[in-house]
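Researcher: Go.
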Amino acid sequence: MIPSRRWALGPGPRPSGNSWGPGQRLFLYTDGLVEAGNATGAFFTLERVEFCLDLDADLGTCLVELQYQVLTHSPVPVSVTISPRC
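Model: Structure:
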């Protein structure tokens, strides 16, 4: 058990691995992305994230489109930082 004052995190971490094929991507995000609301309170859904990432384009173009979609979805200023890592 990992010591924690709030949550029991379970057994310690175990090393694992993954084999990535050509063109595969790993996309990490926080809940703020899919919980960004529009004027009616509708969230920016995971399906919209997947659509942007599934575009038949290079990674940079996909991320720029995702950023544009989030910024136009929400009527309030949101902070969107997208930083591709290879």
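Model: Residues 31-73 form one domain.
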